[in-house]
Design brief:
- With 426 residues, this protein is mainly β.
- It folds into two domains: 4-11 and 250-417, no CATH class; 31-240, Immunoglobulin-like, CATH 2.60.40.
- The protein has two helices and 21 strands.
- Strands 2, 4, 7, 8, 9, 12, 13 and 14 form an eight-stranded mixed sheet that branches. A six-stranded antiparallel sheet has the order 1-20-19-17-16-15, with no helix packed on it. The chain has a five-stranded mixed sheet with strand order 3-5-6-11-10, with no helix packed on it.
- A hairpin with a 5-residue loop joins strand 8 and strand 9 (159-163).
- The longest helix has 7 residues, at 368-374.
- The chain is elongated, with a radius of gyration of 26 Å.
Length: 426
Amino acid sequence: MRFEITTALLASAAICVPALAQRSDSVRVSEPAAPVARAARRVGAIEIDGSLDDSAWRAATPITGLRQYQPQEGAPASLPTEIRLLYDDEALYISARMSEPLGARGVRAPLARRDQLLDANGNNGSFNSLTTDKLVVVLDPYHNHRDQALFEVNPAGVRGDQLNGDQGWDPIWAAATKIDSLGWTAEMRIPYSQLRFSRDSVQLWGMQIWRYEDRLNERDMWSFWRRSDAGGPAYFGSVEGIRIGERPRQLELLPYVLAGEQLQHSDANDPFHGSHDTRIHAGGDVKYLLTSNLTLDATFYPDFGQVEVDPATLNLSPFETFYDEKRPFFIAGSSAFSFGGLSCQFCSNVSGLSVFYSRRIGRLPQLSDWVHGQSTFADAPDYTPIIGAAKITGRTNSGYTVGLLDAVTNPQSERYLTASSPAPLK
């Protein structure tokens, strides 16, 4: 049997000299030194339920003193916020009390899907019409002033996460919230297995904390920078005190079994289809941490039937239509296979340069429309099944982004019957 193999290897690196501004080691001008927080070891059980009544939280020193990013740049936050940090051998724990003088009436908490509120309140220059209160924690576990692992939650418990701007990153973590007469509270548990950090037993992480207050149209931040500054991880505060002994297991398995039956009107002259069609699929996903900064993702017999369908288009040009990637396996880590936004002294700015189009993997077999036009009845596959796919993504210690992708698809054929053919053709 012949298999089709698709391989893509990309290593993207910024070899050029950065522009004058926005260096990763930017120096603060006329601003206080970046704040430092200390995480305490967890003693006692913590239930992630949104309540802050667990006695273990008393060991943590509260983080306060947030400042406004907008509207009054640099002014003290209008409403008090108190954050506490705990850790153990498996995870980082975060609790927060967001005070609101109007109580529950002043809290804005829309319901949405995961990651849908990442661009709310006009964040990232988005035109997303949603607005919400929310707590955002951004971690730089390597403390290299480059990485940003973002975790957010709103008062309704809607979570969001992204890694270095990649919203396809969906780590396994927990968060819970509660709204009460004093405002709202939040608890988070972020396992170390979802983060990438040094092998040192004593950790030093970068961190930024944001609070969005929709009623006041206000954004508060812990480690302050001005709107005229480059911002980002170079301006983060620090988290001290985390001590990690044996590193946690970095292996995740996600098997699945899917059964379905399609009922349809049948034609007695159709030799390919009956009144019902039963299908059973089984497969799984694997994630394994090869090194502290390289991750292996693999999928076997994936089923993407639940993925949002593409909009209908009429393409009269000789070029194929480019659709956004919506399959989870190909979305995660997709930034390793794209270029854009480079800025250097020896090259022009590049935006949206695409050298790899993942939608060609597992796409509808070609000439399918032509076969349907020539046949009376046809047995045509809806897609090309992917037997397996694997990719390695990550970043080297020197800052180079590396991506390797390999996929194997099952060859497909169509059978059709025409008015002039007495038997099905292939």
